[in-house]
Fold:
Amino acid sequence: MAGDGFIDAALARRSAQGLRRRLRWVAGEQDRWVDVDGRRALLLCSNNYLGLANHPALREAAERALRDYGVGAGASRLVSGSMRAHRELEDDLAALKHAEAALLFTSGYQANVGTIAALVGRDDEVFSDALNHASLIDGCRLSRAEIRVFPHNDMERLEALLAASTARRRLIVTDSVFSMDGDEAPLRAICDLADRYDAMTLVDEAHATGALGPGGSGVVGREGLQDRVTVQMGTLGKALGCFGAFVAGRANLIELLLNEARSFVFTTALPPAIVAAARAALELSRSEPWRRERLAANAARLYRGLLDLGLDVPHCSHILPVIVGDPAATMAVCERLLEYGVFAQGIRPPTVPEGTSRLRVTVMATHTDEDIDAALQAFAAAFADLER
Ligand SMILES: Cc1ncc(COP(=O)(O)O)c(C=O)c1O
Structure:
């Protein structure tokens, strides 16, 4: 068939470079322990940071909404009507983020591509951290604005780029917690530069919403920067255990996105059962701060143990990058870990820069000290095997 030659060659090239991806089959829920490819393993690569994805309160909320609303939302909210469930969640999200309003998107990917393209266009410039998530990168590309990539967290370089800008509008985009590294952007410095050079800011809090800050309000909330960030983007599929995403900000921003973000306008709304579950997750995130405390304690315990093993872990947060370097070696140690009962996914280029292939290790609030200690034993054994 047409295309076979190109498709097979592309796949063969990936295999030769040690970059071929494959799906692993996981049975059951995203719990502390899972069944991966038929083996029982401690789950250390899920973004279900607070352990809410299978919480009874979320199930009950979803079941109630299924009974009240049925399954599908029917169409874009601008077409077949906006359900009360969506509005209630948006009000709660706006309150969490100390924002005037919020707007739901069907995923974080769609929130980023739609929002960036709604804010900047051909005559504008967008300033993007080199380690930003792919959805921010794709949003920058889709916007057709000039893209200025600054080295990771390099404020001097960002300032130089802003100072040289003659664009009509400027937008700085950054993750708050970087998805593959777990470190944080210097948000206060970014806001200072944005003020000085009249730039808008978009902060992607996919890995911070629920996981950090008072009530799970993220790094922006923790630092009290809500009034200084133009766009607070967050996701519902990670710490909040559901699916979907949102943007929070000034009422005029939300009104603009509702009108012009193509990934909001031209897509079917989130299913009401998911929306109701996300509301229940927000309530748990607010009322059970022990989950964030436990998440941080688990991260610190695992981080200390990994350093004691002599492994290269540049940062401590609920995302712990264990740098291996070579893609094939990374996948080899990932396989060995599975044999020792730990599921920690290997991440290779282009998701991370060349030479920095890693295990992206993530903890959950529901892991116990015994789980973490068992994981450390498995890491010791798997890395010892690698050196043999
Ligand atoms: C920083 C960041 N932004 C956005 C996304 C996309 O979110 P979603 O999975 O809801 O599309 C992800 C991960 O998936 C992410 O890590």
